[in-house]
């Protein structure tokens, strides 16, 4: 990052827009020309045409050098700090698949499951409830980032094995959190998507590792992260070559004394405006109160979220973590039925 006269000069990314009739060979030729300059090429196929983002330039890069290449329509500078995740680079919405479930398309996605995997019986009971209610994806933490070192830390690899069994039993894909490099290796092996939690949103080495993973990443917003910081964290993952990133708003810290966090739903239309990435809402952590989960889920759908992630436990009062915000499987089922109407009103379906 260079500074001059108090103005921050950002390293500028060049975006090469290919002609609509450009051939795959021409796209390859442009990528080769980028790599020959020791730069990184990110091909971004779009509905109309392919764009190729260029990163890795240490100083100013003259876009004109690429304009003479066959198949190139234009080469432009992108000056946002977030580049590959911006709509400028990719105008159409990204659809990210968790297992065989598309996230970001016309259908809203419902993720449900316990805060933590506590036992095989608990996870399977809740998983069946999620499936029967019409949920699409299972959640459940095997590695828990807890405020107190004396609180339940999760079952670790055993928890991942249980999640894999819950997937076999229900046919639903699973998402679970990785808290460090070691757990990320394991999560990548067992799960269908890697969750990076709020507390790790700016763990940049973990983000880079997630960017080299072969599974999609569910990135939760940090407790006090600005929108720019949130998108920059997504950029970390994407810049390493993993384009399958799903954002998740989970509430931010405010002076609120009636909820655990303040669910910042304003961020949803803001993200939609400037990024092509899908965004989910987590009203469980966002409110910390189980009676607020259904109303805030409706609100999430109304503002254009691509789905919700909900904590569900068959015996919330005895849950080892986040019981006060967990709902029972039957409440989840009622909520799903109720959300159908709101989805339709928002031009989506469940
Ligand atoms: C979770 O989803 O269980 C979790 C710990 O969420 P967050 O990182 O948003 O606090
Ligand atoms: Mn939780």
On the 0-100 scale, what is the average pLDDT? 94
CATH topology of the largest domain: TIM Barrel
Major sheet: order of its strands? 15-14-13-12-11-10-9-16
How many distinct helices?
A: 11
Largest sheet descriptor? 8 strands, parallel
Uncertain segments are 1-10
- Domains, number: 2
Instruction: Please name the fourth-level CATH homologous superfamily of the largest domain.
Output: Aldolase class I
| Amino- and carboxy-terminal Cα gap | 44 Å
The proportion of residues in beta strands is: 15-25%
Task: Give helix and strand order, one letter per element, not per position.
Answer: EEEHEEHEEEEHEHEHEHEHEHEHHEH
Bound small-molecule species: phosphoenolpyruvate, manganese (II) ion
CATH top level class name of the largest domain: Alpha Beta
Please tally the β strands and state the result: 16
Radius of gyration: 21 Å
Q: Percent helix among the residues?
A: 25-40%
Shape: elongated
Task: Please give the structural blueprint.
Layout: E1 2-4, E2 7-9, E3 13-18, H1 24-36, E4 40-45, E5 50-55, H2 64-67, E6 72-78, E7 96-98, E8 101-103, E9 109-113, H3 120-133, E10 137-139, H4 157-170, E11 174-177, H5 181-190, E12 193-196, H6 204-211, E13 217-220, H7 227-239, E14 245-249, H8 267-274, E15 279-281, H9 283-287, H10 293-302, E16 307-311, H11 329-345
Parallel strand pairs: 9-10, 9-16, 10-11, 11-12, 12-13, 13-14, 14-15
Antiparallel strand pairs: 1-2, 3-5, 3-6, 4-5, 7-8
Helix pairs in contact: 3-4, 3-11, 4-5, 6-7, 10-11
Bound molecules: phosphoenolpyruvate and manganese (II) ion.
């Amino acid at each position: 990052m260079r500074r001059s006269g108090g103005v921050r000069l950002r390293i500028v990314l060049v975006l090469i827009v290919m002609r609509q009739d450009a051939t795959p060979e021409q796209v390859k030729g442009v990528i080769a020309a980028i790599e020959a300059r020791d730069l990184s090429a990110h091909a971004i196929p779009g509905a109309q045409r392919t764009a190729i983002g260029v990163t890795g330039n240490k100083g100013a890069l003259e876009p004109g050098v690429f304009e003479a290449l066959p198949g190139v329509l234009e080469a432009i500078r992108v000056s946002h700090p977030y580049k590959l995740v911006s709509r400028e680079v990719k105008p159409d919405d990204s659809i990210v698949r968790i297992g065989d479930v598309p996230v970001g398309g016309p259908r809203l996605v419902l993720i449900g499951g316990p805060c933590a995997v506590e036992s095989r019986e608990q996870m399977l009971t809740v998983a069946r409830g999620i499936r029967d209610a019409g949920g699409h994806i299972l959640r459940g933490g095997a590695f828990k980032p807890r405020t107190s070192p004396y609180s339940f830390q999760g079952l670790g690899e055993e928890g991942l094995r249980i999640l894999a069994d819950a997937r076999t039993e229900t046919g639903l894909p699973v998402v679970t959190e990785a808290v460090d490099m070691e757990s990320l290796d394991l999560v990548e092996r067992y799960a269908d998507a890697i969750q990076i939690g709020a507390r790790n949103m700016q763990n940049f080495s973990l983000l880079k590792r997630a960017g080299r993973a072969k599974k999609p990443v569910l990135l939760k917003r940090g407790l006090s992260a600005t929108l720019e910081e949130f998108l920059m964290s997504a950029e970390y993952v994407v810049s390493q070559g993993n384009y399958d990133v799903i954002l998740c708003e989970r509430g931010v810290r405010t002076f609120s004394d009636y909820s655990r966090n303040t669910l910042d739903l304003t961020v949803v239309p803001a993200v939609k405006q400037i990024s092509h990435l899908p965004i989910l809402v987590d009203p469980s952590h966002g409110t910390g109160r189980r009676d607020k989960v259904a109303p805030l889920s409706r609100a999430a759908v109304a503002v254009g979220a691509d789905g919700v992630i909900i904590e569900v436990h068959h015996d919330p009062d005895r849950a080892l973590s986040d019981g006060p915000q967990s709902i029972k499987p039957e409440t989840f089922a009622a909520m799903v039925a109720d959300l159908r109407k709101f989805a339709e009103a928002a031009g989506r379906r469940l």
